[in-house]
Amino acid sequence: MNAALARQTEAYAPGPELRMAAVRELAGRGLDVGVSASPVLPLLTDREESLDLVARAAKAAGARTFHAHPLFLRASAAAVFLPWLEREFPHLAGRYRERYRDGAHLQGAYREMLRERVERVRGRYALDARPDAFLGARPEQLLLFT
Q: Is the Cα dihedral 18, 19, 24, 25 positive or negative?
């Protein structure tokens, strides 16, 4: 819900307040809505307090689910993202290069730590984990070819 950071990281995307207004509008019209706080940027948006602010706003806007996943950084994205990070947050660039040197996904202790934070936040606001939780029974998959 940090509008300044959102503007820095996603200059052309709707800001947090506008996104929550969309959640509020959809929920107000009877739709089941979920919020994804993804991608979580290590050392920038992964603090429990940051996740809590998003979940609290999501719940207040009428969301039923909440989840978050760490930044997925493929080489093609890293070619753009890491130079940006060096300009905007130079003190973090080396840590990102270290964390992502073995691939696009963060694994192990970091992923587990984030999962635990998200679960605690979800619990505080009684938000479900599964984006499809409101569907009940899963609908039958339609065939593309017969």
A: positive
Torsion angle (degrees, nearest 10) of CA 126, 128, 134, 136: -110
Q: How far apart are CA 69 and CA 30, in angstroms?
A: 27
The region, left, alpha or beta by phi > 0 then psi within -120 to 50, assigned to residue 6 is alpha
To the nearest 10°, the Cα dihedral for 86, 101, 52, 36? 100
The residue extents of the domains of the chain are: 1-70+107-129, 72-105
Per-residue pLDDT of the chain (146 residues; tens, 9 = 90+): 888 888 888 888 899 999 999 999 999 999 999 999 999 999 999 999 999 999 999 999 999 999 999 999 999 999 999 999 999 999 999 999 999 999 999 988 999 999 999 999 999 999 998 766 555 566 677 788 87
Strand (E) or helix (H) holding 84: helix 75-88
- Paired residues of 128 in beta bridges: 65
